[in-house]
Amino acid sequence: MSPHGPVRVHADTALLAKAAATGLIQRVADAQAEFDVAHIVLTGGRNGNALLHELSLTPTLGAIDFDRLHVWWGDERFLPAGHADRNETQAREALLDTVPVLPELVHPMPASDGPDGDDVEAAAARYAAELAAAAPAGALVPTFTLAMFGVGPDTHVASLFPGFAATEETERTVVAVREAPKPPPTRITLTFPAIRAAHEVWLLAAGEDKADAVAAARASTDPTKTPAAGAYGTGATLWLLDRAAAAGLQEH
Ligand SMILES: O=C(O)[C@H](O)[C@@H](O)[C@H](O)[C@H](O)COP(=O)(O)O
Fold first, then answer.
1. Which atom of ligand 1 is nearest to the CA of 149?
2. Could you give the C-alpha distances from 212 to 53, 124, 207, in angstroms and in order?
3. Under DSSP, is residue 215 helix (H, G, I), strand (E, B) or coil?
4. What is the rounded distance in angstroms from the CA atom of residue 213 to the CA atom of residue 229?
5. Residue partners of 26: CB distance under 8 A and separation at least 6
6. Closest residue to atom 13 of ligand 1, CA basis
7. Closest C-alpha to ligand 1, atom 7
8. What residues contact residue 24 under an 8 Å CB cut-off, 6+ apart?
9. Do the Cβ atoms of 16 and 10 come closer than 8 Å?
10. Which ipTM was obtained for this model?
11. Could you tell me the distance, in angstroms and rounded to a whole number, from the CA of residue 232 to the centre of ligand 1?
């Protein structure tokens, strides 16, 4: 599967969030019809949270059966539970606290005051085990219906930053990241083997500060140099942009 799937360009970030919310509902409803259960991977960041907030306002959200929806995260800032900067906290505020999700189907990455304390490597291993427990036979992670990733200005996705060893991981599905260039410095992240188990991957980017990163990632096939180029699904990969983030693309 090519890492450079089609691009959808929206006039602004609000329309990007609305279109993405509608698309997510359709994909989850289709997966629940076909496979009974759907698994989605949430992203942190402004665009990821804007999408979740838009979902909470979307009338067709009722097409999703939350009794059959597993929610995972692509990465997490390794902070105490409930910390305002945790992706989980922000996702709960943006959407999860407003919908009837089943707590046992919501899978946050461990917090720094969780069962492993500040041992971020043990916490990463714990999440890998949780993914494996929900995986089909022979797999290490569930077949994610949809995995979403914001794209950083340096082309990072999740907490896979350019040049970091985590971008070269081929065995483990979840690893710890230390000294991340985007604060906070200690994080937990899915690796490319986990990301590429997704049926569909979306890359979200908005704003002129992302135009160079989008152009660089779509011109590259080196996932260590430009991690966004390494995030793709088995069935589809879609880049959801606003006009500002697409400005560096010849194709648009
Ligand atoms: O934990 C995080 O910080 C996010 O998961 C990160 O990967 C984010 O998605 C990108 O940095 C884009 O963030 P913005 O959408 O806010 O630019």
1. 9
2. 27, 31, 10
3. helix
4. 10
5. 63
6. 45
7. 158
8. 40, 51, 55, 146, 148
9. yes
10. 0.98
11. 17
Residues 251/216, Cβ–Cβ less than 8 Å: no
> Which token pair is 200?
């569909």
Name the architecture of domain 7-242: 3-Layer(aba) Sandwich (3.40)
| pLDDT tens-digit map of 79-101 | 999 999 999 999 999 999 999 99
Closest residue by Cα to atom 5, ligand 1, is 44
Residue 96 and residue 198: Cα distance in Å, rounded?
A: 21
**3-state SS assignment for residue 156:** coil
0.95 surpassed by pTM: yes
CA pair distance 58, 18, nearest whole angstrom? 8
Radius of gyration of the chain (CA): 17
What are the pLDDT digits (tens) for 145-169? 999 999 999 999 999 999 999 999 9
Q: What is the pLDDT of residues 172-193, one digit of tens each?
A: 999 999 999 999 999 999 999 9
DSSP conformational letter for 106: B
Cα–Cα distance, 94 to 33 (Å, whole number): 26
> How would you classify residue 202: left for phi > 0, otherwise alpha for psi between -120 and 50, otherwise beta?
beta
Say yes or no to pLDDT of 1 above 50: no
Q: Could you tell me the residue ranges of all domains in the chain?
A: 7-242
What is the Cα–Cα distance from 65 to 48, expressed in whole angstroms? 21
Instruction: Return the H-helix or E-strand segment holding 30.
Output: helix 13-35
184/33 Cα distance (integer angstroms): 39
